[in-house]
Amino acid sequence: MDRPVIKLDGDSVVYARQLAKEITDEVKNELIDHYSTVSVERTVLRFFGVDGVTRDQIPLVNVVVDKLKEWSMLEDGVAKPVVNAMIVLEKSAQEICEAISDGLDLRTLPDAPFYKIESKMRELSKEALDKLEKKSSQRNDLLKLLGDPPKPYKYLIVATGNIYEDVVQARAAVFQGADIIAVIRSTAQSLLDYVPYGATTEGYGGTYATQENFRIMRQALDNAAEKVGRYIRQVNYASGLCMPEIAAIAAMEGLDILLNDAMYGILFRDINMIRTFTDQYISRLICAFAGITINTGEDNYLTTADAIEKAYTVTASQLINEQFALKAGMKPELMGLGHAFEINPDIEDSLLYEIAHAMLARELFPNCPIKYMPPTKFMTGNIFKGYALETLFNLVSVMTGQSIQLLGILTEAIHTPHLQDRYLALVNANYVFKAARHLGREILFKEKGFVEQRANTVLRQAVNLLEHVKEVGLLRAIEEGQFADISRKPDSGKGFEGVFRKSENYINPIQDELENRLGVKK
Predict the structure, then answer these.
(1) Annotated catalytic residue: which of 281, 299, 301, 353?
(2) Distances 178 to 42, 200, 204, 231, 338 between C-alpha atoms, Å
(3) Is 494 among the residues known to form the active site?
(4) What CATH number does residue 42 fall under?
(5) Is 371 a catalytic residue?
(6) Last residue of a domain, which of 453, 468, 493?
(7) What is the mean pLDDT of each run of 10 residues along the chain (522 residues)?
(8) Could you say which residues form the signal peptide (predicted)?
């Protein structure tokens, strides 16, 4: 083991996980199992092979789901009426959806025998997941061929707005030592209730997440990976109002990591709770099946709340996110739970606090690829102090055995990073990671010393919060502002109009096939 260890109170760990399980059981049983969303239904159509946009650039899947909603046919799920039309008219799902866009009214069609509909739905679902399985196998083969770089993986963001410029920056980063390339999304794409189409060259603060953009970057990274002789991971964002759709197209194009966290969407994007918890479940089924690692956003809590006083909210949320992921059939190896280096550097022993919090996350989730986020809140524009902070951040990461390291940028809080800023971030990480590669195996933390006691204090505080959340329910706890000091209401937020209650006859064959193959309890 290349990291030190601390002793956590075993009873508290077991109790915390039990509380988190009971909290998420309630959300699953009372909400997720009874609701679907327009994005979930659009995801089904995408798996059935439906693609493209209308002459007005509206995604075909949006047109069809909106029509079914207008016709009061959506409560049974999109699959049954579309597959019925496929059988009656002897056409593909793509052809049926194009016909609906051109004026076909599914209400006018006769009903095919249900056994034929059921058989066709199973056939389409099996074909779709077989393709995902093949894609995932190809990624694993390439990983074995090229080799996995040592941890912490160096994670770097590109965000030009132009996918082709992103490729140029990504290749340069790979040749300088980056292991993970994240294409940050254009500002506010998470609030779009549709997935943009095709390659894009204009975006503000980032580049649109589209299937074609995924494909372009995937090819570029694979080419670069062959040149440097190590596997390069590709990241995007399966969050916001199109969470399951983006998970689906990312899986189709062989992405490795997706930022995926309903709690983040609720708190920081004001997305409706029911909408995003439901979307998250389906998206995580897809990620679990395709072998895609998720990253959660607990690190963001410390940008709005104090990192020492509210450290326990990060731990409590990590435990809740772990249980949500387990319910969707995810293995710990795919749970990139988030935390951050966000303590005020002017506080005495701030480094010890940071080490204690990093060790708590690492010890509590030993099999998870923990994602460690850099300083942002206390980056002031003083690039020299900022660079020193990034150096300490990199040192804590390699010393405590973190898995995924989003590299800090010395010009944080000044401007969108230039190429040279990213270059210096990689230079710093390369130096520190190499110089301290095995430092962790040489360190013993003092028994009942500051680091161990602080970690256990935060754990006990997290247990106290989880007890309260269990008592009042997760939705009520969020409304109280228990996480990130932000309050949201269950019946408000963006995307609520896209939520509907399932009928007794609701069918989602893609979900059924995913759950069957993953062995998920229904």
Answers:
(1) 299
(2) 35, 24, 24, 10, 19
(3) no
(4) 1.10.8.1000
(5) yes
(6) 453
(7) 90 98 98 98 98 96 98 97 98 98 97 97 98 96 95 94 96 96 94 96 93 98 97 96 98 98 95 97 98 96 93 98 98 97 96 98 97 95 95 98 95 84 95 96 95 98 98 97 94 95 97 97 74
(8) none
